[in-house]
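ok new one. same drill as before - structure tokens go in, u give me an amino acid for every spot. 101 of them this time. try not to just spam alanines like last time pls lmao
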């Protein structure tokens, strides 16, 4: 439940519960997602944020991707038990000279 559920919200964004869906639960994370889940109470849909090429993996963000690299990785490690190595994180890590010790 903790790692594979999504927040279900009303159209105004009010939290109404957790959603478990076997298809959406296998969506992988990226800090530069090409899709997002949209929920309006009883309905949830996956929407492209940009053109997705044939054969390209669909990524959603599990977190607030506006945070900095360290904050994003900390939340992902604490909540989802992995260190993010998406293209954005790898690029930012290279610019910053790596993670702090």
């Amino acid at each position: 439940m903790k790692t594979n559920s999504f927040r279900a919200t009303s159209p105004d964004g009010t939290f109404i519960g957790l959603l478990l869906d076997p298809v959406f639960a296998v969506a992988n994370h990226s800090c530069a997602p090409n899709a997002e889940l949209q929920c309006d109470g009883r309905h949830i849909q996956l929407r492209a944020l940009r053109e997705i090429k044939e054969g390209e993996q669909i990524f959603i963000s599990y977190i607030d991707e506006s945070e900095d690299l360290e904050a994003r990785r900390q939340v992902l490690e604490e909540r989802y038990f992995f260190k993010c190595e998406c293209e954005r994180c790898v690029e930012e890590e290279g610019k910053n000279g790596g993670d702090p010790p």
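The helical segments are 69-80, 87-96. and btw Residues 69-80 form the longest helix (12 residues).
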